[in-house]
Amino acid sequence: MHAMQYEITLPADYDMGVIRRRVADKGHLLDAYPGLGLKAYLVRERGRQGSPVNQYAPFYLWRTAEGMNSFLWGPGFRGLSGDFGRPAVRHWLGAGLAHGGSVASATAPTSAASAAAGEQAGPPTTATRETVRLPEAADPAEAVERALADLPAHPALHTAAVAVDPSRWELLRFALWHGPAPEDVPGIRYQVLHLSRPELDRLPAGRHW
User: What's the whole-model pTM score?
Assistant: First the structure.
């Protein structure tokens, strides 16, 4: 699993309706993309949920490196770069994953009641992302194990992931939520405009090594 994100910060007076229309028109194009676990079409709006900026910041969990490469070298990313300028792409190596109840109901046998609850939950509407630089003296393996142990088990959780950028020894915690993210969860808050999840059910829960 590979985690990936780019952030396009927009002017303070930018009409975020432009981004919403873009996602409404094009978001479905990755709904069946090979090798893609999920793509969350994320935005931040200045003055909402404590955001100081307007930003379009899609987040990806790739099941395969081939899928990630085909996207970055393909027409989709080329088109985005043509419209907004080529953004820096952040990349983390996947360390672990947790599925919330609605995802589990779609990927494993469940009772009829559990399946119905998963259907009623619908797609996620918010996301959180926290990044932490690991201190020089910290053992990366121990830090990752703690982060995996702390993956949220919350009824509003859709999906949560832990990943690491070893070039910076940066630990990433990312989560998608049904409804508002819990107040005690740290990190940047995003709105989710659309979720493409073609191969999310093929990303195993738990530790990824």
Answer: 0.91
For the segment 4-34, what is each residue's pLDDT rounded down to a tens digit?
999 999 999 999 999 999 999 999 999 999 9
Averaged confidence pLDDT in the chain: 92
Separation CA 53–CA 7 (nearest Å): 11
62-105 residue pLDDT tens: 999 999 999 999 999 999 999 999 999 999 999 999 999 766 54
Closest CA to 99 of 31, 23, 200, 4: 200
Q: How confident is the model at residue 50 (pLDDT cuts 50, 70, 90)?
A: confident
SS (H, E, C) the chain: CEEEEECEEECCCCCCHHHHHHHHHHHHHHCCCCCEEEEEEEEECCCCCCCCCEEECCEEEECCHHHHHHHHCCHHHHHHHHHHCCCCEEEEEEEEEEECHHHHHHHCCCCHHHHHHHHHHCCCCEEEEEEEECCCCCCHHHHHHHHHHCCCCCCCEEEEEEEEECCCCEEEEEEEECCCCCCCCCCEEEEEEEEECCCHHHCCCEECC
19's tokens: 């981004």
- Diameter of the chain by CA atoms? 49
